Amino acid sequence: MSARFQELDWRQTPLGELTLRRRLDPSSGKEIHEIKLNDEFLMSSMFTVAEVELARLALAEVPRGPLHVVVGGLGLGYTAHTVLEDPDIESLLVVDALGEVIEWHQQGLIPAGKALAADPRCRLVHGDFFAMVRSGQGFDAETPGRHFDAIIVDIDHSPRHLLHPTNADFYELEGLQRLAGLLSPGGVFALWSNDPPDEEFTATLASVFADVRAEVVSFANPLQDIDSTNTVYLAKRR
Hints:
Strand order of the largest sheet: 7-6-5-8-9-11-10
Helix content: 10-25%
CATH class: Alpha Beta
CATH superfamily: Vaccinia Virus protein VP39
Strand content: 35-45%
Radius of gyration: 17 Å
Structural class: alpha/beta
Number of domains: 1
Largest sheet: 7 strands, mixed
């Protein structure tokens, strides 16, 4: 890359200005890919530990066998790629409200995006994850109400810091009950959050699911020369 910073694509979306950019990290010399929505960073390839651990922690809780999984939020694809590394995965639906992000993967603008899009076990679905839960019909238009072994979500910054206010009902009692209805018995719900564990949200989870816990994931933050943390919430359908 001749320039230290390059804007690979820019789109105007219903949620605002969406940008895919690539830059060189001056300290390591590595290429960093970033997705921004307006002034907020949705994803950076500099920080992927929690996105990978989100998938690994979720799948570690699921009984072995042919597994059918949903990932809410495509981003740079790290969570979806980690799911597909599990040899028991039979099918994966990745739902994203931004068709532009799906196109970037299909076009190869995002590293390994074409490999993800071409995997026969994986289907990239353009749609509103939260609206799909709200409808009760679920994520697979070909099989309404289909159940899954794991539903893994990385969309909002946290249950309190939302990309859009209409997402709020998902994190409340009725929204979580609707989600539980889309899981197979013993199926796992996993949620990424940029914030520390939220006791109120954890209690709401525990009123719907079993074996609820919040795992704190630590990772190096070279920008601030400290260790940063994210939270992964895990819960099982009763």
